[in-house]
Amino acid sequence: GESVGLHLPTLSVQEGDNSIINCAYSNSASDYFIWYKQESGKGPQFIIDIRSNMDKRQGQRVTVLLNKTVKHLSLQIAATQPGDSAVYFCAETLTTSGTYKYIFGTGTRLKVLA
Amino acid sequence: NAGVTQTPKFQVLKTGQSMTLQCAQDMNHNSMYWYRQDPGMGLRLIYYSASEGTTDKGEVPNGYNVSRLNKREFSLRLESAAPSQTSVYFCASSAYRGRNEQYFGPGTRLTVT
To answer: pLDDT (tens digit, 9 = 90+) per residue, A13-58?
Structure first.
């Protein structure tokens, strides 16, 4: 069932191509970021994270880039597969006086074309 | 490990009815969370429990109450459901509250008529 916004931006890529999903985060003081994947009817699933003292982090087939100057985060998926079809959203963590605020983006739908 | 489990998966309520959403995690995590997800919006935090024995309001707590029953279980109660509470509810847990990943349950789709 549809559990995320009906009018999300959509990125369509050919199977085997690389995908780049972008996220503009809201607060320049945010110091920790996560990319989540959400398949239809399921809960969000952790993909990769990055701290603000880094500008790049790589995982298996995924890379996250952080540009603090323009408050931009991107997720690169190499050799996109049909199983990558899902909604992807970023989350930022803002730490203020020992308290934490989590801010989640609305997401981008990735469609993998066979 | 089952991770984070939630019950029920679907629920339909009439306005004014009450219900409790159940959540349990088997990862020995200290922190647990309840979120709601609405179309066109990011996840919004309703309540959280940083550790066993503590609960705190999140961004949208009105109309909800929570109970951290023990380290494993964190329930969300709607005392008098309203149509504005129609949403998908996710429970999540993390090792601690802070800069670490959260593990989410499969969600409860709630409709209030």
So the answer is: 999 999 999 999 989 999 999 999 999 999 999 999 999 999 999 9
| B24 CB within 8 Å of a chain A CB | no
Rounded CA-CA distance A106/B40 in Å is: 6
Identify the CA nearest to A98 among candidates B59, B96, B16, B19.
B96
Looking at the predicted structure, is the pLDDT value of residue A99 above 90? Answer: no
User: Residue B107 half-sphere exposure, CB side, CA atoms within 13 Å?
Assistant: 24
Residue ranges in chain B modelled with pLDDT below 50: none
User: Which residue of A lies nearest to B101 if distances are taken between CA atoms?
Assistant: A46
* Chain B from 26 to 65: CB within 8 A of any A CB: 37, 39-45
Phi and psi, residue A110, nearest 5°:
-105, 125
Cα separation values, A113 from A12, A17, A80, A82, B48, Å: 7, 10, 9, 7, 39
- Which of B42, B44, B106 lies nearest to residue A42, judging by beta carbons? B106
| Exposure on the CB side of residue A49, measured as CA atoms within 13 A | 16
- The whole-angstrom separation of Cα B94 and Cα A78 is 28
